[in-house]
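User: tokens in, sequence out, please.
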């Protein structure tokens, strides 16, 4: 066991190096050398005045906060008063303006009566015109529906035909490619799942290892808890023994009390009853003071809630204008979004028309291309019979493509004398059409070009040879392209008919490709426009939703304001109830204070009567022992609670270990399942790869079925154009009538609204009672001039004046409440200061009394503790004034070293007597004492040891001779320390070695 272990063990019993039951040699020196202020702070600490300082500091902080609110309330009252004076004049002007406006409205009613009759006649004529146009519109719409039906039927037929053509041409290929991509995607997803399952295996293994680590930690925790449980049980047993010892001591003191002369029994019983009554009254007063503090806190909380509710109401009311502004902004955004949606709708319609036109152009090019391909086949067949010397389509396509690195055919690059031409042509045959290129890279690009154009096959001769003349590839030639073959002929002349047809086919192929690219571009733009159309519609819906949300929020804010105002009224009523309760409690506290003062006066008389007996001291001793027993029992209860908590924590740790074992098993199962899933997924990947190979083979089989459907499509297009033209003409006629009708209906709605407005404004009237029109206008002009002279007018001042007046009255009430609260806090601060002074005085007087007695015993003289400023004890320090036997009175600074130590020890023993403990440790406190003084200190310690245990470190015989047990440490010859213990209470026998 080391020093820190001993300190921890002693701390559990309330024994610490900083306490006054442990006195080191340096502590005695420190008391001698410390300042008077520091010495007085020792009394502060023992008396516990820090608690009152903390309460006073909190109250001062609270007072500062309340005072700030009082100042704020004063400022707001002044602001409201100034505003009320300003509104008074504006209110008078507004009331005068309001009277003039009402008189003007009366005269304006005369003008509207004649206007009402004119509107009624115009309304009847417009209604008749609307009925005529509705009949005409019904007939036009009937005919339009018939024409639209024909257009729809033709469009459906054309759409079906286009779909068939597209399906035959590209859709099946696209579908197969889409299926191929889907299979590839499925393979990728399966591989991702395999990777995920592998991560699951790793995670499960990691969780299993982590669970094993947690099990080890929990087991260590259980072992630590078991050690703590054993320590608590040992401490509890020790406390039980202390309780038994104290109970025996209490029985002894009570027996001494009973042995005292019975003539003081009646006085003692009365004194005990009075003391119990005083304690009961003090407890009741303390309870009332706690209730007073609670009610004060409740009052402050209610005031705070009242302010918060008022602030919430103001904040909520401030939200309404912002919400109105947001609503207006959203309505503007809605109009913009609707206009944007209409524009995008027009763009979508234009792109659809453009797509339809491009499809028509593509159909025309495909028809011409088909015809040219047929013509080329016929010319190529004739070339075999007539000896046409034009190059085939594949060679012409490559030569016209303009590739870098293509130099021409063998026939174009070679040359012979005319007399040898026939023989060379016969010998070379089709090789004269082979194309000479730089290298196999150029040849590969040419072959890819022929495949993309479906232009046949050709042979390419790369010029990549080594310095030795060897070709890079053994064959030296490259043959490739599309699957259809061609015949090649040798010629030295210009282009023939076959070559020209091949060039036209190439041009048509390029034009077809360009149109398809344009069509894809239009389709992409159309898709993008449709996406934007969907986004625009979604934006409109979102704005409409936002408008609904803002309107709903505005309703919620208004409802919240009503609810907060109701809560505010409830809080104000509760605050008034708390104020009434506080007044009642303060009255009860005053009554209890009077009762306590009367009881204390009675106790003082009884104590005077008993001052010659031992009863007060014995009673005090018995009370002290009872308090110590109660403290020990409280500590035992605390240990029981600690023991229960430790047992519970240990149970939790054991349950956690069981759960961790379950987690380990679960992780192992997850790992096994994941490994099985990985094996299944790998087999499924193999199946998908086999399916992918089949679909890629099927893509190469779809290319030849498009000619017969195009003629029928052209006929349908012509019929559709005629039908659309007739439909559009009829639609224009309908739109014209609808526009006229819509305008007439707007006029009807407008007139009907204007008539309703005029009727509401005019009401019942007698046409003959209406004044002359000129007189009415003259009166209106006069009233407008008078109103203009008053402008600008603040009409809101009428209502605002009443609101400000009500707010001013409420602020005055709130200010009065805050002032009252501040006065209450000041009274509480004064009470804390008085209680602090009272507590300090009691502790100081008790310790001084003990100091006087102990110093007299130790030195044979007199001594006392003197405050520098008794009227304001906390402003000065504490001085120890002493007069050793046969010496003059002197302060601590003027004494000798031994006298200083003796005085300091008297001060320490006085503190220990005032605040006793069951255990004391003194470390060489007699170091600076002479032999006589050491003997007196030894007697003092020996006497005190009858009531408490003393452990003393000393080299002086005065203390060693009076000890019951002594422990010595000596150094042996081998530099090993030896500890020897002696039991001096027996016959000086060595206890252990």
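Assistant: Sequence out:
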């Amino acid at each position: 066991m080391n020093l820190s272990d001993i300190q921890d063990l002693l701390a559990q019993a309330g024994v610490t190096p900083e306490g006054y039951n442990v006195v080191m040699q340096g502590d005695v020196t420190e008391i001698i050398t410390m300042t008077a202020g520091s010495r007085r702070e020792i009394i502060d600490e023992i008396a516990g005045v820090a608690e009152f300082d903390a309460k006073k500091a909190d109250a001062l902080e609270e007072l500062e906060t309340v005072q700030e609110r009082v100042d704020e309330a004063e400022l707001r009252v002044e602001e409201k008063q100034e505003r009320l004076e300003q509104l008074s004049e504006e209110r008078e002007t507004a009331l005068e303006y309001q009277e003039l406006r009402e008189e003007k409205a009366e005269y304006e009613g005369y003008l509207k009566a004649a206007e009402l009759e004119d509107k009624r006649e115009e309304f009847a004529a417009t209604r008749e015109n609307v009925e005529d146009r509705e009949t005409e519109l019904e007939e036009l719409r009937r005919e339009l529906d018939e024409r639209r039906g024909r257009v729809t039927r033709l469009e459906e037929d054309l759409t079906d035909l286009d779909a068939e053509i597209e399906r035959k041409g590209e859709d099946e290929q696209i579908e197969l490619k889409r299926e191929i991509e889907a299979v590839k995607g499925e393979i990728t997803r399966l591989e991702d799942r395999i990777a995920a399952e592998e991560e699951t295996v790793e995670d499960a293994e990691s969780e299993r290892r982590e669970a094993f680590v947690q099990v080890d930690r929990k087991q260590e925790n259980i072992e630590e808890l078991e050690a703590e449980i054993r320590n608590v049980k040992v401490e509890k047993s020790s406390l039980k023994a202390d309780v038994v010892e104290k109970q025996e001591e209490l029985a002894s003191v009570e027996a001494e009390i009973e042995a005292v002369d019975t003539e003081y029994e009646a006085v003692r019983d009365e004194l005990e009853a009075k003391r119990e009554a005083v304690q009961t009254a003090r407890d009741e007063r303390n309870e009332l003071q706690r209730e007073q503090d609670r009610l004060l806190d409740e009052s402050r909380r209610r005031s705070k809630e009242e302010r918060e509710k008022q602030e919430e109401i103001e904040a909520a009311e401030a939200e309404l204008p912002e919400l109105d502004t947001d609503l207006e902004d959203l309505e503007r955004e809605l109009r913009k979004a609707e206009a944007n949606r209409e524009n995008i709708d027009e763009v979508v319609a234009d792109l659809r028309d453009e797509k339809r036109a491009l499809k028509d152009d593509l159909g025309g090019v495909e028809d011409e291309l088909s015809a040219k391909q047929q013509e080329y086949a016929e010319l190529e067949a004739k070339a075999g019979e007539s000896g046409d010397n034009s190059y085939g389509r594949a060679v012409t396509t490559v030569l016209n493509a303009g590739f870098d690195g293509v130099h021409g055919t063998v026939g174009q690059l070679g040359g012979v004398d005319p007399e040898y031409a026939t023989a060379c042509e016969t010998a070379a045959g089709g090789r004269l059409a082979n194309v000479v290129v730089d290298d196999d890279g150029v040849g590969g690009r040419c072959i890819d070009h022929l495949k993309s154009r479906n232009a046949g096959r050709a042979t390419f001769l790369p010029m990549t040879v080594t310095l030795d003349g060897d070709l890079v590839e053994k064959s030296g030639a490259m043959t490739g392209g599309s699957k259809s073959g061609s015949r090649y002929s040798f010629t030295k002349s210009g282009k023939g008919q076959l070559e020209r047809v091949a060039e036209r086919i190439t041009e048509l192929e390029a034009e077809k490709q360009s149109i398809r690219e344009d069509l894809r571009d239009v389709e992409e733009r159309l898709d993008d426009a449709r996406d934007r159309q969907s986004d625009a519609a979604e934006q409109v819906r979102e704005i409409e939703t936002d408008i609904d949300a803002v309107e709903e929020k505005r309703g919620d804010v208004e409802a919240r304001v009503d609810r907060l105002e109701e809560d505010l009224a409830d809080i104000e009523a509760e605050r008034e109830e708390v104020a009434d309760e506080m007044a009642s409690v303060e009255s009860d506290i005053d009554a209890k204070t009077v009762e306590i003062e009367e009881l204390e006066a009675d106790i003082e008389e009884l104590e005077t009567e008993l001052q010659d007996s031992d009863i007060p001291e014995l009673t005090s001793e018995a009370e002290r022992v009872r308090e110590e027993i109660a403290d020990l029992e409280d500590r035992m209860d605390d240990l029981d609670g600690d023991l229960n908590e430790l047992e519970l924590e240990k149970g939790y740790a054991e349950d956690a270990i069981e759960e961790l074992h379950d987690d380990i098993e679960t992780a192992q199962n997850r790992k096994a399942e994941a490994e099985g899933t990985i094996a299944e997924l790998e087999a499924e990947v193999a199946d998908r790869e086999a399916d992918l190979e089949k679909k890629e083979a099927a893509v190469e089989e779809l290319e030849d079925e498009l000619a017969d459907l195009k003629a029928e499509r052209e006929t349908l297009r012509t019929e559709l154009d005629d039908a659309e033209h007739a439909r559009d003409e009829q639609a224009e006629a309908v739109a014209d009538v609808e526009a006229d009708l819509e305008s007439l209906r707007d006029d009807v709605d407008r007139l009907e609204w204007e008539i309703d407005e005029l009727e509401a404004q005019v009401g019942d009237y007698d046409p003959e009672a209406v004044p002359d029109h000129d007189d009415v206008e003259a009166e209106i002009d006069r009233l407008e001039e008078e109103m203009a002279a008053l402008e600008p007018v603040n009409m809101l001042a009428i209502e605002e004046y009443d609101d400000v007046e009500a707010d001013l009255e409420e602020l005055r009430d709130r200010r009065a409440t805050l002032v009252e609260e501040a006065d209450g806090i000041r009274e509480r601060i004064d009470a804390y200061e008085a209680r602090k002074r009272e507590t300090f005085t009691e502790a100081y007087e008790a310790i001084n009394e003990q100091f006087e007695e102990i110093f007299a015993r130790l030195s044979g003289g007199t001594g006392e503790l003197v405050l520098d400023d008794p009227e304001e004890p906390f402003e000065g320090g504490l001085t120890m004034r002493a007069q050793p036997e046969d010496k003059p009175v002197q302060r601590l600074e003027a004494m000798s070293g031994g006298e200083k130590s003796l005085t300091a020890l008297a001060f320490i023993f006085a503190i220990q007597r005032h605040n006793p403990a069951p255990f004391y440790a003194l470390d060489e406190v007699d170091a600076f004492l002479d032999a006589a003084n050491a003997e007196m200190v030894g007697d003092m310690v020996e006497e005190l040891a009858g009531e408490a245990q003393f452990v003393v470190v000393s080299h002086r015989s005065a203390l060693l001779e009076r000890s019951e047990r002594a422990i010595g440490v000596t150094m042996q010859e081998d530099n090993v320390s030896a500890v020897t213990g002696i039991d001096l209470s027996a016959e000086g026998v060595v206890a252990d070695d």
